[in-house]
Amino acid sequence: QVQPVESGGGLVQPGGSLRLSCAVSRIIFGAGWHRQAPGKERELVAFITSGGITNYADSVKGRFTISRDNAKNTVYLQMNSLKPEDTAVYYCNQLGLWGKGTLVTVSS
């Protein structure tokens, strides 16, 4: 099993959008996006199962969408209507392996 690799973070204004990508070794397994804001514990943001079932934290429902591209072994997190409280390091996790994270900053 290979460590996931995240990309796509950056600085965005409130109300803006970003799409995060996570390259995984075996797309057939489920994967999740977590985030950790400064001074806070890491929390689950979204998860997609091996069967394609998705689940979201209440704080991001209706704004974030998790998806995957089987051909590219990649899991995505589309983030719309971003808020300053979405600022965090976003991590991808698959089978207990964590990526190094990608920083998302929402600020004007």
Could you write a compact summary of the structure shown?
The chain is built from no helices and eleven strands. With 108 residues, it is mostly beta strands. The strands form two sheets. Strands 2, 4, 5, 6, 9, 10 and 11 form a seven-stranded mixed beta sheet that branches. The protein has a four-stranded antiparallel beta sheet with strand order 1-3-8-7, with no helix packed on it.
Features:
49% strand; single chain; four-stranded antiparallel beta sheet; 108 residues; 11 strands; mainly beta; seven-stranded mixed beta sheet
How would you describe what is shown here?
With 108 residues, the protein is mainly beta. The protein has no helices and 11 strands. Strands 2, 4, 5, 6, 9, 10 and 11 form a 7-stranded mixed β-sheet that branches. The protein has a 4-stranded antiparallel β-sheet with strand order 1-3-8-7, with no helix packed on it. A hairpin with a 4-residue loop joins strand 7 and strand 8. The N and C termini lie far apart (39 Å). The model has no long low-confidence stretch (mean pLDDT 95).
- Alpha-carbon distance between the two ends: 39 Å
How many strand units? Answer: 11
Low-pLDDT runs of 5+ residues are none
Q: Helical segment tally?
A: 0
Structural class: mainly beta
Biggest pleated-sheet summary: 7 strands, mixed
Radius of gyration: 13 Å
What integer is the average pLDDT? 95
